[in-house]
Amino acid sequence: MALSITRGIVPKAQKVIVYGPEGVGKTSFAAKFPDPLFIDTEGSTEHYDVARTETPRSWPMLLDQVREVKATRPCATLVIDTADWAEQLAIRHVCDEKSWKSIEDPGYGKGYTFVVEEFGKLLNLLSDVAEAGINVVLTAHAAIRKFDQPDEAASYNRWALALIDAAKMSDAAKAKEWADAVLFANYETIVEVVGDGKGAKGKARGGQKRVLHAQHHACWDAKNRWDLPPQVPLDFAQIAAFVPAAPAASRVRAASAAVPARPAAPAAPPAKTAPAAPPAPAAAAPAPAAPAAPKPVQSIVFADDGSVVSDTAKSKAAGLPDFWAPALQLMERDGVSVEEIRAMSAAKGFFSADTPAENYPEDYVLGGIVAQWDKCVANIKAMREETEPVPFGAPDMTKI
After folding, report:
1. Is residue 343 part of a domain?
2. Are 164 and 307 found together in one domain?
3. Where are the beta strands (DSSP E) in the chain?
4. Angle (deg, nearest 10), helices 338-347 and 325-334
5. How far is CA 390 from CA 347, 376, 386, in A?
6. Which pLDDT tens digit goes with each residue over 176-233?
7. How many domains does the chain contain in total?
8. In degrees rounded to 5, what are phi and psi of residue 6?
């Protein structure tokens, strides 16, 4: 077998982690990446003029949003803001799925193993997004943690990602391995020693200039594959040359051009009646039907006036407790109604058919519906197929 050998730099979408203390400018920095789309897990982009998805209220919703970005390629950069809040969704998902009140319930450290597995799924999906030609940025908060260096007698404090980080299970370690660049954003602070002897004290000055640390240091984690110096100003211009401005642009255009081509096929029948000029405007009439395309989602009517509202307001409009919000978000996306959830729950023997949805306990909604959403959708689709009427003239297969 002949080896295929290539040389030189291979342009590709970049996977970047930007972390630092609160308020240092992580979100502002991420917003400077080419054509960013934010999955805002903590509501930090409300004061920024950026494109964003609906805030995911559950772990399954977050994973599905990432899959949708990979499939549709609506942006040049996907930003998850922040990774540590996304990790909290994973923790809640594991607790709901296992019927735990806390991630510590199964014993010291055991629960975190499941969280690290779930977080690995997110990183794998984000790798798929990058392979599709879309830059990926994870922002994260920083935490000061004690570090025991094996070849030194004493421990010391250092900045680290505010993610699960233990010897045998670590979201932080997985994320750092996954990334092409780990950049630590912080304020440049100088500590001066004031006084002498036992009365000496440290006095900090500065703290106004924001900098980006791009190389490993005893006091923080950082790396890059772009040959950046150890410290640069917190300015996207410092790394712009290494980030593709429009990854996979040709493929995106080809994909978007292919979508209208399919609806054009049904337009062929009107072309046969083309002898009459008026049909041409009639063919243009279906075009406005394109805006109605978003309705495949089959939005659920939550309010009396038929309007659809968002987040916890959905549950209030539907007369349901607030803990229904993550479930309602998934239901709206997949076109599942409250009545179908009730029918499925009754068919599985969890509740009687006349039990109102507002009486369902929180642990069932979060653990039995949200955490098991894929199974719920499969069950509901099966129920729909069973209740679909047999087309007129079709043979009754039960009598064959």
Report:
1. yes
2. no
3. 15-20, 36-40, 51-52, 77-81, 135-147, 156-161, 181-194, 201-213, 231-233
4. 100
5. 22, 24, 10
6. 999 999 999 999 876 666 666 666 666 666 667 899 999 999 999 999 999 999 999 9
7. 2
8. -125, 160
